[in-house]
Amino acid sequence: MRMRLVVVLSAAICGWSWCQEPAAPVRAAADPLAGLPVLAKTLPATVDAPEAKEEVAPGVRMVRNERVVLDGTFIIDKGPVDGMEVLACLKDGKTHEALIRLQTTNGQLVKFAVMAALGLPDGVPAPEGSGLPARGTPVRVRALWKDDLGAWRSIDVSCLVRDRVIDRGYPPLPFTYTGSRFQVVQEPGPDGSPVRHEKFMLDTTRSVIASFDEPDALLASPFPGAIQDARFEANSALLPPVDTPVQVVIERTELPLALGLDDQGQLTSAAGDVLDDAGLGAELAKHFGAGTEPGLRAVGVRVARSVDRGLDVAARSRILSAAAAAKAWVVPVFILAPE
User: pLDDT digits over 212-221, tens only?
Assistant: First the structure.
């Protein structure tokens, strides 16, 4: 009798469990960019031939106080399969995962040209794989090439990147000048014994403009998902054929809106007022919402070097959330405040 009761109870329990609806599957958190409004596609514009007469080195030219021009070639127009980590590399750089191969092999001369023409201070690179955004100075980066009819075409380099996660290309965004970095390395000396010395890392990794979090790049990625290089690919719909010569133009820029980030993680307006969520959303909607046409879809966030970098991540998440609620396509870039 006891055995029969156990069997009956077991069957009842099992039958009850079979009748229950299965638990809803746990979904991965939506990518923060997926909540931003869909924009009209940015297309290359027809422009006059670029001018940069002062040659720093072959393939590196500048107009003081205006721009730096780097000569190169488009080397892919789709993919790569495992992700596009670099947008412009030195001639002997990561060509298997780069959009543009520059003519020059000298990273120090590229940095010299940017310093001489634009007078930019060094920033703080994004550590690889950390998810921390870079801090520095925003610059506008455009690609110029001749089409089949000989007309010059121009577009922001960010627009030549397609994001596989959100299934669309990017609008015009600035990149962040950090100046790469110097690092003490240990290498074999003439007699084979280890020698420690300081090395300019751009000349080692050779990535001038990155889409991924690359600490040695001269210009850091503006993309919030830069921790994953596999999400980026060439925006084939906008690119000219492989082997098309291209000029990469780097210029100073002013962003449509600049906020502050204090050491408590609070976002402040240009007037210094602390912004609550409603105030933040109103600012973003005013400058980047429906009916606006900002030249670059980025809000600058000024932050002191001493501020905990983890606060940058929290501020980025808050801004993206507020942008989605305000139906404003905008991402933050972090501007290193002068000391």
Answer: 999 999 999 9
